[in-house]
Specification:
219 residues, alpha/beta, Rossmann fold, 4-stranded parallel beta sheet, 8 helices, 8 strands, 16% strand, globular
Length: 219
């Protein structure tokens, strides 16, 4: 019997709570006949990727993790900055998915315009630069911060309240028809937020791993 296929999902920050929350959200994508989905934490990374400097430093570490695990069949970079994605595609011939790119592509299939729920105001310019590099800025309705850092996302009541508040602004004021959670640490709130706002909400980690599973199964 051939060994099971494996997808490595890399949390580029060192926050184990984010990894655990994200991994729980990936459970519906696991199946007896599907690839093993393994979530790992970049223990040498920043506690949260909240600046371009954080993203750039984590990118180097992400590449090292991929090199050490190159026997895997696919990789997912689980940070909304997709740190190191282009270099990663140079160091392995396996598929590499970034959650921002995958989340946006998924959102485009669900509505005419997407809004992003960022963590902090400092995240927004970084997102905009990336979206422009993908040539998709015309479909962006807005990118607004909820004003909470990565470590604060574990406060469920406060986080959900802010997601609702900012999500309504993106829907009602900016015309977003789909929302994307702008951090892997927001995964647990997707379904409740979707039900609360009455519109599609994309968890980008789920989107990226869904694409990775398809790529592995169809290869």
């Amino acid at each position: 019997m051939s060994p099971a296929k494996e997808i490595i999902v890399i949390n580029p920050n060192s926050n184990e709570h984010v990894t655990s929350s994200m991994d729980t959200a990936l459970e519906p994508l696991r199946s007896a006949n599907g690839p093993v989905i393994k979530s790992v934490t970049n223990l040498d990374g920043p506690p949260g990727i909240e600046s371009q400097q954080d993203a750039d430093s984590a990118a180097v570490q992400v590449i090292d993790i991929i090199k050490r695990n190159n026997s895997a069949d696919a990789f997912v970079i689980a940070c909304f900055s997709d740190p190191g994605i282009y270099a990663a595609r140079e160091v392995t011939n396996k598929p590499v998915f970034g959650i921002a790119e995958s989340g946006i592509l998924t959102a485009l299939s669900l509505g005419s315009s997407f809004g992003i729920l960022a963590i902090l105001d400092t995240s927004v310019p970084r997102h905009i630069r990336y979206i422009r590099s993908l040539g998709l800025e015309k479909r962006l309705a807005g990118d607004l911060a909820i004003g909470l850092g990565v470590a604060e996302l574990s406060n469920e009541k406060k986080t959900f309240h802010r997601l609702q508040e900012v999500g309504r602004k993106l829907r009602d004021n900016s015309g977003a028809s789909v929302l994307i959670l702008g951090c892997a640490g927001m995964a647990r709130y997707r379904l409740s937020l979707q039900e609360s706002l009455g519109m599609p909400v994309v968890d980008p980690s789920q989107a990226a791993v869904s694409m990775a599973v398809s790529a592995v199964l169809l290869n």
